Amino acid sequence: MAFRTCGCLTVVVQPTDMIRRQSLLLGLLALLLFMVGVYQQTAIGFDSRFVLFAQEMLRHGPTFFPTTYGQPYADYSAVTTLFIWLLSLPFGQVNAFSAWLPSAIAGSVIVTLMYRLLAPYSTRWALLSIALLLLTNTFVTETRAVSLDLMLAAVAFSVFYLGYAADQFGAPRRWLLIFALLLLGFGIRGPIGLVVPTGMLCSYFLLNRQWQRLFCFGLLAAGLLVVCVGLLLLLAKISGGPAFMQDVIRMQFMGRMDGSEGASGSLYYFTSSMGNYALAYPLGLLALAAICLTNPREAGPQLRLVLYCAAAGLIVMVGLSIPQAKKPVTCCRCCRWPRSSRRIRFRQREVGCSAHCAA
Description:
This protein is mainly α.
């Protein structure tokens, strides 16, 4: 364990390998918590749709799009169904355990990365942040369901963490892994699955004034989006012909933008999250308001992380407010940012050391 002295205070900094071990242990414990008792559960509602997709895949083999009674379904690609199919192979059938395990893994990844993000500044506040995360009913509910948005939340958080850790923790800059995660996000959630993590990392580069990385990464991500959309439409044409390709365009693109698949108000995410993501979202807003009112004089790494997280959450909520079709669970990826930020800010006030000592 290493120590750094700042005036009369001694700041304890845990070794990176210890933080990694602790985060993996917490992620494993979270996974066990999410999956305990689900084997005998019955999939209903939205989950039953993906159970049907996976059952069809077990009978007929993998396809580019999930199928219902032999007909391709246009609203999703087959990536999530492939995860369920692979996990169902040892059982020979689809059950609640294999259907919900991908979401539970995504939730455990979020727990792991949240600890790694906060523990270098304060282990106590990292644990408290995870505890409050687990008290968020919507988050826990989504870990015990087929949740494409929770999987995307894990992908987006991973992209943000990789960008932040490379600058702040001296981690290697893993561009190939970041772009692989963007591809995974597109496979899980379509175009929005690539746009959301890209926007979050771009917000970090913007606040850090890393203009070259901002423009290079943004342009490469935009090019990757164009290639992915073209490939998606080509696979749709191969799978079901021109008519099915038009269905994909309508259900995954135009229907969500013009509101033909359902519409909500422009401030839907900003208002509905007060209840859907209590206590995290309301407390996060109060914490950000307190920071703005107190006008802190020291802009150390903890306070900068507050700004990075707030910007990442804000760009997600604003971006998701543009399409007319909105769903409550879609916002789950951004509501953990203000919560973790609040704890770091209070920890900075508690320690009271300068920016270079707290780094």
